[in-house]
Amino acid sequence: MKTYAFITGSILLVLATCAPGTRAQNFTATGGRALGLAGSSILLTDAYGLFNNPGATKVQSLSFIGAYHTQYLNLGLNDARLGIVMPIGQFTTGLGVMYYGDKLFNQMQISGLLVDEIGFSRISLRGNYHQYYVQGYGYRSALTLDIGGVFTLSRQLSLAMVFQNLTRSGLWGEASSPLNSLMQIGLSYQPAAQFRLDMQLEKTIADPVGFRLGMEYQINEALSARTGFSPTASLAALGLGISWKNFTLDLAGNYQQQLGYSGVVAILIHKQVR
Q: May I ask the CATH architecture of the domain 2-271?
């Protein structure tokens, strides 16, 4: 029995330590818009910043987001994400939940953030509660802190930076095994109002530097087309955005050379508060 507990406990620690790093290489992004840009997410100033770059979280009214990710169809790795974002005075606040896994292993994350706009920059802190479960071993939890920002350099150029798990926190009771930390930096170039080009670098403690490039073209007020690739992750992506009144539907699919196809369906609903 002790041997079984030791083995399953070791599995938990490996999964808990490596899962964030795996996401950092392939699925740090949330939403069809970001995934249509091959995960180039940290410069997108929208409600999905709640899960992507907290400093990029920006809405004009109360907003609800939902996304369902089918990660690698052959492996059946799916997750669901829900969130609410709203402006309060000069600040933007948000609360989101992500669930990933099955009966054998699952992960839940609850995130809350506060964003402030200061001059040409938007800065945010995001706190996260993580809960991991392995069948036969039980639950383990952790608290992490992220910081992110977007800096408007000109009408055409923006810079963004994100640090996830800034405190190098680990599972409670397992402080010697910290969760992975991630640093991202990106640059966005918008030569025209309808077109943007986003470039993003990312680095975890254990993994080499990753690179992503995404392009978005707004065909008209209701329709946007996206594409992107990541040579370091062997990833290519396509996406489509459809907007109507206070509703936006984002669809995206990508192909990773070793792991196969993935897709996402995401919705964004704005509601005016009187």
A: Beta Barrel (2.40)
